[in-house]
């Protein structure tokens, strides 16, 4: 039985205001119908229960690439403490620290502070999105790499991310390894970067400020354009303000409903490639909120788990699932990777792949991408290319 998260004590630390979750929308929306996975069932002594869990997971990632994760070991009270700390960071980081810790995505990473002026170090158009991203250096050297206000609480943030990495994500990868009919620790041992607290991934405190009508019109109702994540899994904590949308199997953008305490998990490109297309890298975007939530800030916590940086990903052809059912060649990054492999060309390393995208084309409007907008089977896609790999993402 997996141990539950044990949060460090708060005695002797500065007082932190409590984060109050905004009210949920009252609008009747066409919600995405996502499967819920009870992670605690992975430890059930009845093999039939575990087998059923594997089957439900297989359907969830085949149909959606997104799922809710429940009973993963963190209580709602412990989770809300992390939201308290994220709110505290954004409320207390100084202007001097914003400048000193300002990120530089041209390096290929999002480490440090993002101001509300676009996705480059140089200020661009106002987007109302503020972030602080914790990479391995922020955890290893908090004395100089994080805002002064959050230093007293780094033991809590570090313990939380360590639990997400070494307990939650490890168990999730065990479940996904079983879907591929491989050994329990195959993905953890061979694909997942897990040295240090976060490996090659990162943890994000994000705050979406409300936009004026003019800003919303300029951004055409989109806060973050449609994209897929680069790594293995993304652990996103469900929040009350509706803005996250996924691209459904019937090619529609559908909102993701708030489920208090649950993790919203999406599959990254690394697992789509490793699985030979059986796992879908989830296409998702962030939009403007429903009309009854436009005045509220959207506070978000996300952990992006990464594959080993120096690895060149190829399908796990030893998987009995792949041997039996072959590759799934639907539109996605695996299909484009396979074209390179079939041509005898080297695919990028994981680090090269993600850093090329971060450093050059992060959150570019679809019409400004290299291939512009193209229509495929009645769906409009923004078309780009990174390191010889063609990327199509729905508008």
Key phrases:
single chain, 395 residues, alpha+beta, Jelly Rolls, eight-stranded mixed sheet, four-stranded antiparallel sheet, 30% helix, globular, iron
The outline comes out as globular
Strand adjacency order, main sheet: 1-2-10-7-12-5-4-3
| Topology, number of strands | 15
CATH architecture grouping: Sandwich
InterPro entries: DIOX_N (IPR026992), IPNS-like_FE2OG_OXY (IPR044861), IPNS-like_sf (IPR027443)
Pfam families: 2OG-FeII_Oxy (PF03171), DIOX_N (PF14226)
GO molecular function, one term: metal ion binding
Family: Belongs to the iron/ascorbate-dependent oxidoreductase family.
Verbal overview:
By secondary structure, the protein is α+β, with helices and mostly antiparallel strands. It has twelve helices and 15 strands. It has helices at 47-63, 76-92, 95-100, 136-140, 142-145, 154-179, 186-190, 213-218, 269-274, 320-325, 333-342, 350-360, and strands spanning 36-38, 66-70, 112-114, 129-134, 202-208, 222-227, 233-237, 244-247, 253-255, 263-267, 284-287, 298-304, 373-376, 379-386, 389-394. The strands form three sheets. Strands 1-2-10-7-12-5-4-3 form an eight-stranded mixed sheet. Strand 14 (379-386) and strand 15 (389-394) form a beta hairpin. The longest helix has 26 residues, at 154-179. The termini are far apart.
